[in-house]
Structures are given as structure tokens and as C-alpha cells.
Amino acid sequence: MVIEFEQRGHVAVLTMNRPEARNAINEAFALEMEAAIDRIEADPDIWITVLTGAGSVFCAGADLKVVADGNVARIFTKRGGGGGIIKRERSKPLIAAVNGAAVAGGCEIVLACDLIVAAEGAVFGLFEVKRSLVAAGGGLFRLPRALGRQIGMELILTGDTIDATRAHQLGMVNRVVLSERLMEEAMALAERVCENAPLAVQESRLIAERAMAESEADLWQASDAALARVMQTEDFQEGPRAFVEKRAPVWKGR
Fold first, then answer.
1. What contacts 85, CB < 8 A, 6 or more positions away?
2. pLDDT digits (tens, 9 = 90+) for 20-57
3. Which of 59, 82, 168, 221 would you label with 182, given CA atoms 20 to 30 Å apart?
């Protein structure tokens, strides 16, 4: 398997497992990634996902052997786009646990995630201009949103990288940790999210994801609709009840 799947409680852990190819994206990668996300989205017992890479590199982007052979379409899926994930619509949060370099399409995978925990030695960048390519997997607009226009533009035009510490200072990365603590910290963050009502988390995530691209009028309407949906759930009754009874809530995800 190129994409390894593991479930730890309410947390799914996906590992990109092509270390001999720097976890580069090929056809099997894209298809297995899309299938893994399908599985996660369909399972009400999974509330959040952690995505990481095997070996010393998170993901080096598209497998250039595939690109050079003229088979670039094989690294895309219809619903997920590049790597089966970069354009994928999903309801559940995704944490990138970045164990090493995340460049080109690998950086775009990170930018498609909701939260980022990075090892100290991790770097991020879009190399495409160095290969007469265009970063068409969202990096050209997601990177400036994450880092600010000027820094994002510099990285896009030069093909240079930014290290995890600087990315954290600029607000792109949530946590920078020792490499040996990467998964521990990513799992701890996932568990913190899992302390909350899963449907409320999903509804909140969807609104926040739209925050930079839509008008306040549209977002007010979407927020009202999200609250109305949550108020129809069993968990909406459980939250106040647990508070009154001075106990931890028991979420059911329905």
C-alpha cells in the first residue's frame, strides 16, 4: 500500500509510504489517497485525520518520472485533484504532521490541510518554476494566504523554501516540534479536537474554510444555517446537560 491507514480511537492516521521515491505522487498514491478519504468521510466513528510521510521526507510532489513520460493526468483524481486530496471536498478536519521536506505538490498537500504540526527540520516550497511547471494544485493562492502576499510571492517566483520555524512565525504552521515528538504532538492536537462535539467541529470548519473567499453576508447566512443544523442533533442536547451536571460530555456524533 502506498497510503497506509490506521485508526486510533476517533483519529485516522494516514501515512504516505513511498520513502524510496521521497513519497512522490504517482497513480497508485492518488487512487489510494482518494479511497482513504472516502473511507474516513463515510465512517461516523472517525472524527479527524492525521497525515504524515514515511522516511525523512513528507512529500516531494509529483513523481517527475510520471510527468516526463507525459502521464501527468495519472496523478490526479476527478474528485480529489492532485494526489487525490488537494482539491477534495471533505467535512472532517485534517492535520498535516510534516516530518521533512514538503515541496511542490507536497507543499500543496500541506496547504490543503486544516492544521499543521511540523518537525524542526521541515521545509516548505513550490519548486515548479525551476522545472518550467506551474503549481496548479492550489499553491499559487493558498501559499500567499498562509504566509502573506509578499513572502508567498517571493517563494512562488524564486522556487526557494521556507523552514518550519519561519513558517510558524508567519502563521502558516501551528506547532514546531522535535522530530521524535512529531506524531505525539499531532495526535495530542487531534485528541484536543476530539474533546469537542464532532458535528459542531465539522460545521465550524466548513465556515472557517470559506472565511477568506466569501462575503460577510454569505458567511452570516452560512453560519445561521450551520447552527440550525447542529441544534437538531443529539449532541446539542448533551452539551448543556453535561455542563449543568458538571461532567464531561459524551458525544455521539449524531
1. 33, 34, 37, 109, 112
2. 999 999 999 999 999 999 999 999 999 999 999 999 99
3. 82
- Would residue 128 show up in a list of annotated catalytic residues for this protein? yes
Q: Are residues 143 and 231 in the same domain?
A: no
Please tell me whether residues 42 and 67 are part of one structural domain: yes
62 and 100, same domain (yes or no):
yes
pTM of the model: 0.95
d(CA 194, CA 46): 10
Print the domain residue range for 227: 198-244
User: Which grid cell is 47?
Assistant: 472524527
Query: Which band of pLDDT confidence, cut at 50, 70 and 90, is reported for residue 68?
Result: confident
| Same-domain pairing of 80 and 178 | yes
Q: Is residue 249 part of a domain?
A: no
Instruction: Indicate if 89 belongs to the active site.
Output: no
Q: What is the pLDDT of residue 65?
A: 81
H or E stretch at 175: strand 175-177
pLDDT digits (tens, 9 = 90+) for 96-123: 999 999 999 999 999 999 999 999 999 9
* Residue 202 region by backbone torsions, left for phi larger than 0, else alpha for psi between -120 and 50, else beta: alpha
Write the CATH number for 107.
3.90.226.10
Check 128, 191, 234, 245 and give the catalytic one.
128
Question: Cα-atom radius of gyration of the chain, to the nearest Å?
Answer: 19
